[in-house]
Amino acid sequence: MLSTALKKKPLSAREFDAILTNGSRLKNPEECLADLVSRQSVLIPDDRQRLLQVSRDYYRDTIDRIVTRADETVADTFRILGFPPHKFKDGIEWEKDFVADIPWSKDYYLTVPLVMWHNKSDLKVPWELSRGHYLVWLAQAWKFTDDDHYLNKFVELIDDWSKSNPYPYGVNWTCAMEVAIRMLNWIAAFEIIKDDNVLTDDFTRRFYRQVFQHAIYIEENIEVIGNGLNSNHYLADLLGLIVAGNLFRGTKRGDKWRHFAVDELEKEIMLQTLPDGFCFESSMNYQLLTAEIYLLAYLVESKFNGFSEEYRNRLKKMFELISAFIKPDGSIPNFGDGDSGRILVFNGIDRPDPQRLVDIGALTLDMPHLRSYSNRPPSDAIWLAGAEVIETMISTGDIPRDLRESRYFPDSGLATLREDDLYLFFAANPIGSGGIGGHKHNDMLTIEICCGGTNFIVDSGTYRYTSHQADRDRFRSTAYHSVPAINDEEQNRFLPKLLFAIRPDAKVRVIRWESNDEYDLIEAEHSAYTRLPDPINVSRTVCFDKQRGFWIIKDDFLGKGKYDFVDRLILGDVEAGVIDSSHISIESKVERRQLDIVIFSNEWDFEIMNHEISPLYGMKYDAERIEFSLSASAPVSMIWAAIPAGSNEELSRKREAAKQSITRMKWMDLAGENQQKVTLKHTHA
Hints:
By secondary structure, the chain is an alpha+beta fold.
């Protein structure tokens, strides 16, 4: 048991006053407090009246949504992540997983368990509730309507949270990243309100003392691992220290925070981001989160000193990559872990929006070619970069995006094979996070296919982290991804009670990438099953016929030994039907689109099976998967085509073209030990 003498104590009012006045030119704490309020804002542009006018001129729909979310907050109703709305009836229970109806203890923070293995509690529920995105909406709603209900609720929630979560007790003081995100939302909401001088001096003093206390916690509990293994948690901590450091600039501790955080972020963006711009945690969702963190830090620090050109260039690479992988329907591949996390939300939609983020990056990093066709920037952009971004967009006009084309990113092993509204995502991505694989799924050689507004073949998603190990492992398993596999063997084995690590069993590499006006072709392999008694090497080749608009896929299992081979396709919001023994038709539920799966390999059986999909953290729904199977001795192959077709005539024409392409490429079923694989040169475009 931790000694009482060793426990940290909250920052007293007298100690905070001393921090403000020490070394200051001002004479007393009251003058220092007034100076804090009057300073240039750190997160929100200072011309608030211009922001309001631009919002009213261009974003009436967004204002209505923000006011609706603020009304829900006034009524103590909260929608977080992918969970249904929840209304607290007798006060907000900040430390409770209200989905599972399980509270956390209010013990000293170092003794609070993060995972309770005996139940299905989910740590992210109280954490997400305490991030406080709704505080920003309350502040905005008050500015838009002059209704004091929103202002009073903002003050009430800050005070209620502070009273219910005394420093440093309870689950909401157990993670520096959560403390940092909460602090950022508090500051952003306060800066929207502060110029109107409607907050009392007592509240303002309490508020700034709590913010300073948050920053102290981050400094003393910063989530640094070192040895190239730091994660998005460390990045969020550093962002918090940059904001707090600039807010309390001129104090000894504030200046220390800012200098440290800037130096560290300059290092981390190079360590945690591959040269082609992908985050090293093997997750497209965390690509969005870390890009937001780096961008926010860039925008804040640009008001004062700024980052290096190397930092800016790597950040631009991140946005180039995100833009390249946005699907025709506006989403991105649900690749790797995803916790639906955001840092600051100014539009009332607290879920990831890749095009919105890219548009903000395009406007603030001078990358107009990444912009969407929209004639107005995302509303978030004006709250982060100022109302002048409206003028910037109007003056440049609509600039067609030039990245709706096939791309290959050699450092991350990711590619798109696409043309017009046909899109295939391919991943030969190695185990990230220095080989630990904290957010890695067993998705080596996975694909996703989107045609128009329909996601036909998808990733299963993440669902949950800490609520249950079986749920966690199921959604990151090989069986929950559209990959070739053997028996029930995992590509990389899991470890008991380690929710954020996998055994580094498999290595993956891209063998070949070719792209021209006629076709794209990518071939890759992994070594996961070379650990079996009779080693098997698995490879996948995807060829996209751009002229005719279809994909051909060849999966090879090379080696010796008899196994049960499987090939799975995870289906999105679609319905699959069997036409015959070599033909499955997949129809969209959202539009009149169809994707046909045509099988060119003999002897493989297939079955349409029940499945489940998690598009957002905490949400899942029933879906289907197609499972191909063959019990045979290696080597074997599975050759099939994904054919978008609007009519039987078009399908027949494309099917014949696919058959001719297979013949021309000399693809064939591998059916005997004398078949040899041609070793192709390792080439990159």
